[in-house]
Write a structure and sequence with these properties.
13 helices, six-stranded mixed beta sheet, globular, alpha/beta, 46% helix, Nucleotidyltransferase, domain 5, 2 domains
Amino acid sequence: MKKIAAIDIGSNAVRLAIAECEGTKLVITKKLRAPLRLGTEAFDKGIFSQATIKQAVKIFEDFSYAIDHEHVGVVKTVATSAFRDTKNSQDLAAAVKKSCGLTIEAIDGTLEATLVRQAINTKLDLKGKSALMMDIGGGSMELSILHKGVLKGARSFDVGTVRLLQQGNELLLKREKEIEFFIQEHASKLDLTRMIGTGGNFRAMLKLKQRITKLNKVDFVTQSELKDLHTILEHTPYLKRIKKYGMRPDRADVIMPAIDLVLMIGKKVPFKRIYAPNVGLIHGVLIDLCQYKISKIKDITN
């Protein structure tokens, strides 16, 4: 069976997923993740250093080895906000192409949101339902509004968690009116009681709730619970977040601006629960590579 692979170059990490298409089912057989905070340089200086380019090439060499070892037939590599916003991103792309033969494709926020929605549809039945979809990355945040199963509006905003870490609440305040206008335009008369969150930060929120409550399984988090988590993290130093709550070092700092973003949206959309299906952009890219309409994703690496 022909294998496919997707690579997602984000602002906080690079991810690889290898999968097989079995009819209408996508089976993920291998996943790799490498921390690489491209957003730090992208959103500050607007240029990648040679050290960062070398680090990226090393990651891609490791990924390329795994791709060859798994006998993958088709590979697609997409890059998001940090790559798009950097003047010399083509230098990084050229270095990767020369070293591994892989081509990096920069995608805009609209396509990113579309691919994420494709992935969500394999996990949740949203036919005839309304929801606010929110994807939080390191460089950008995508909002999609669904009403009775129909997309009413989608937009990307440059308020990712790495950006917010660097530029602080000033950036959030600056973008808040744009976000509010978008919500009023597309959702002012809609009853959006559920949020569907994608990206590692949403999964981290659910894991944090599970650790604190000691519940066997956590499917969602409420706004009030999220406020409690924010208070707990606010009084927990960075290193203790890693040790006590098992957070990755590159998650323990960005989780706070992620929660700030969700709570800010919560002031404008009175959703009751936040669901976080274990899918994201990379799953959408894999679905896009398949020849058939995918209705289910099975991850045998978990």
